[in-house]
Amino acid sequence: MLALAVVAVWGTNFVVIRLALDQFPPFLLAGLRFTLAAVPGVFFLPRPRVKWSNLAAYGLLIGAGQFGLLFFAMDGRISPGLASLVIQTQVFFTIFLSMARIGERLRVFQIVACLLAVAGIGVIMRHVSGGTTLFGLLLVLLAASSWAIGNIVARESGARNALAYVVWSSLFAAPPLLLVALLREGPAAILHSVTYATPAGWLAVVWQSVGNSWFGYGSWAFLLARYPSATVSPMALLVPVFGMAASVFWLGEPMPAWKLGAAGLVFAGLAISVFYPRWRAAQRLRTA
Predict the structure, then answer these.
(1) pTM, whole model, 2 decimals?
(2) What pLDDT is attached to residue 141?
(3) From residue 140, how far is each of 132, 214, 223 by CA, in Å?
(4) Residue 56 has pLDDT above 90, yes or no
């Protein structure tokens, strides 16, 4: 139930982001998110025993890279449902980058999984129009690649407290995002947003930090520390399910056949990449 609650929060957050973007420009919204994720958390959580350079790298990759680009894309360039789906390609970017670092070759099932996901992205590219543009799709793919690099940085950090790691790294995510907001969106837009944002808008900002960062990452780390990763990690595949369902329910996002087909292809690729190696390991144990 806790794992379901986490993926539900992460999935439905794409709708919350879209609604918040009606009141805040994208880079300001991202900057506010990571400001609140860092403060007051840094005063209550001890700094994780990792290098400052590692914290800075993770903060820049996840903050400015993943969420900065994602929010920018979702500001009229891609629908929330598709964004929640395409961002999951970080799984493949993470696999490829990890393999490149250790010099391992791609296996057949990984090639099949990647081809299915690429086919799904290809379907989306053929139907870009209106609420989804090619530029928006490319931005989300860049956000996914940044997330993947951040995954590798976090893995190599050796941090034991995931929540503290996220909170302290947010110190390095907020300043560049706020600087980009100042330079690109301008002081006037920032002042107008902060002055006239409704309580619902501010609640959406707080939810980005408390719901997604504190509750989401903290609960996920709690689960991974107590249950096998093979049991917990596949639950993340439900994030785009909640994301697309919430987008349909709250925003009325249309779900034509091509979009469902694209989702099916990407889901199939994700499922093969996650479940096939576990199935093969189970088969070897049975025959041993």
Answers:
(1) 0.89
(2) 95
(3) 11, 23, 28
(4) yes
| In contact, 81 and 253? CB cutoff 8 Å | yes
Residue the block writes with tokens 């996914």: 144
Query: Residue 240: CB partners within 8 Å, gap ≥ 6?
Result: 11, 81, 84, 85, 87, 88, 263, 266, 267
Residues in the chain: 288
Sequence-separated (6 or more) residues with CB below 8 Å from residue 267: 237, 240
By 3-state DSSP, what share of the chain in percent is helix, strand and coil, each rounded to 5? 85, 0, 15
Q: Tell me which residue of 21, 24, 125, 111 sits closest to 73, measured CA to CA.
A: 21
Omega of the bond leading into 256 within 30 degrees of 0 (cis): no
Q: Residue 225 pLDDT more than 70?
A: no
Reported confidence tier of residue 280, pLDDT bands at 50, 70, 90: confident
Q: Return the closest-CA partner of residue 113 out of 91, 135, 141.
A: 91
pLDDT of residue 288: 65
Q: How far apart are CA 106 and CA 273, in angstroms?
A: 12
How much is the CA Rg of the chain, to the nearest whole Å? 19
- Which tens digits make up the pLDDT trace of 35-55? 999 998 999 999 999 999 999
Contact between residue 217 and residue 49 where contact means Cβ atoms under 8 Å apart:
no
